[in-house]
Specification:
This protein is α+β, with helices and mostly antiparallel strands and 175 residues long. Helices cover 51% and strands 14% of the residues.
């Protein structure tokens, strides 16, 4: 295998491995090469990515190679991943989320019966934000999807577990 082709192949495989990373042994098996050749190519890629003009790097963690952004980019990445002002949930989404949190697992039809209106859009919003997820299917005609909250829901609302939600009776007395 030509050197440039080898470097491209390794670069692509390290990138494709994502957060899990890839070992020299795995790369050698896939590329049908000697581990020494793979290790040498990885070192060269690390040097190339070491250039100040690059935003990425290849690092070694627990004998796995990963492609990551450079540490000096963290302020930009944090800003990029911060929720924007438009990330507030609509009243419909908040109502839907509260119903799911207190009644999970629950189907869309059950949510709509409680709310008295369609809930497809709020369910899509909550799913896309990672606050709810499909947790199964009800054993009934049509096998409707059952929804439940996620770990992200707990994190967003500062809860350790669902049992930390205020009792429903307490909330009903405040309204």
């Amino acid at each position: 295998m030509e050197k440039n082709e080898l470097l491209k192949a390794i670069e692509g495989l390290v990138f494709a491995a994502g957060h899990d990373g890839v070992s020299v042994k795995q790369l050698a098996e896939v590329l049908q090469l000697d581990e020494k050749q793979v290790f040498s190519a990885l070192r060269e890629l690390q040097e190339r990515y070491g250039d100040e003009s690059r935003g990425m790097q290849i690092i070694r963690v627990a004998d796995m190679y990963l492609m990551t952004t450079k540490p000096e980019l963290s302020p930009y990445l944090e800003k990029f991943h911060q929720p924007s002002q438009s990330s507030t949930l609509s009243q419909a989404a908040l109502e839907t989320l509260a119903i799911i949190a207190y009644r999970q697992p629950i189907t869309r039809a059950d949510i709509e019966e409680i709310r008295g209106v369609k809930s497809e859009k709020p369910l899509q919003t909550l799913t896309s934000r990672g606050l709810i997820q499909e947790v199964g299917r009800r054993d009934a005609i049509g096998r409707p999807i059952l929804y439940g909250t996620t770990k992200r829901f707990l994190e967003q609302f500062g809860l350790n577990r669902l049992e930390d939600l205020p009792p429903l009776e307490e909330l009903q007395q405040k309204t």
